[in-house]
Amino acid sequence: MIAITSNKTSDERIQEIVQFIEKQGVQAHVxxxxxxxxxxxxxxxDPKLAEQLRQMSxxxxxxxxxxxxxxxxxxxxxxxxxIKIKDVEIGGEQLVVMGGPxxxxxxxxxxxxxxxxxxxxxxVLRGGAFKPRTGPYSFQGVGVEGLIMMAEAGKKHGxxxxxxxxxxxxxxxxxxxxxxxxxxxxxxxxxDLLRKLGTxxxxxxxxxxxxxxxxxxxxxxxxxxxxxxxxxxxCERGIRTFETYTRNTLDLSAIPVLKQLSHLxxxxxxxxxxxxxxxxxxxxxxxxxxxADGLIIEMHTDPDNSMTGDGVQSLFPDQFANxxxxxEKLAPLLGKKFDTHxxxxxx
Length: 347
Ligand code: PEP
Ligand code: MN
Fold this sequence. Notes:
This protein is of the alpha/beta class. It has eleven helices and 14 strands. It has an eight-stranded parallel barrel with strand order 7-8-9-10-11-12-13-14, surrounded by six helices. A four-stranded antiparallel sheet has the order 2-3-1-4, with helices on one face. A two-stranded antiparallel ribbon has the order 5-6. Strand 5 and strand 6 (88-90) form a beta hairpin. Helix 3 runs parallel beside helix 4 and helix 3 packs parallel to helix 11 (317-330). It is elongated and about 65 Å long. The relative contact order is 0.12. The mean pLDDT is 96. Phosphoenolpyruvate binds at residues 102, 128, 132, 184-185, 207, 237, 269, 272. Pfam families: DAHP_snth_FXD, DAHP_synth_1. Keywords: Transferase.
């Protein structure tokens, strides 16, 4: 249930309404908009509460929300959430590009890729130190040492960093080294992990489970939000369909649907979403056209020898750089800003 106040309702009155709601043993979440404030009510409210609120001065409307997720819903929070990390804003006007290898391999590898991501105009360095592999005998990542290598490369080249965390026990150490924590597709419903991520404030990029509905996806985000961490972004990374030509089917519709249902930033991953290098460039552009707030793209200096099988979907550095030049032209047409910081060379 939400209570909507009018633009004339004072902050003091909103506080009185909140206190009244909380006295009934339920939670009140205030979301202040430009011309109205929404008070979201979470918990088993007395059936009489809706009518009592309707009678209160300052309350314009009371609406019952039937969705199972609340804090993730746009009904509860009409304005877009913008996550600010240093000078990067995710979910606002800026288009955010996260680039880098599937896995951190060596200090030299991650340093060189970080240099190339920065030179191309990317803002965030991606790289897995803990890798969720389908088979137990495959390379599982270099672990904590990889976190250190990546943090150093990010700092040296002026990039934020994002890395995957797979278990609640590793959340604190990953948060110590990385700016953004990624929850992989296989862990979208690892509820212990989601609960733990709710206890910190580090931004989380939550990937959609490859067989999950939008409702399940938003409920997974709700676990993190309900724990007290408001810094969640959603990532469409492809779902499993009958098609085998591509590794997954990037569900482009997810982007406008999630933007409609939720206020959280939406990021697209065209690398895992297609599994094929030649499709990453067109699907990146399509994602931006569909309204994505950012992209997470695999790029490698030597994809044929990458330590995970994801070399086949990794862009070469020059492809990555050319793609970002195109995004600089495309972004303004879609109400976004993206700057490669390359100087314009006049003929
Ligand atoms: C990754 O980003 O390298 C990764 C393993 O992603 P996903 O969880 O989407 O498969
Ligand atoms: Mn990968």
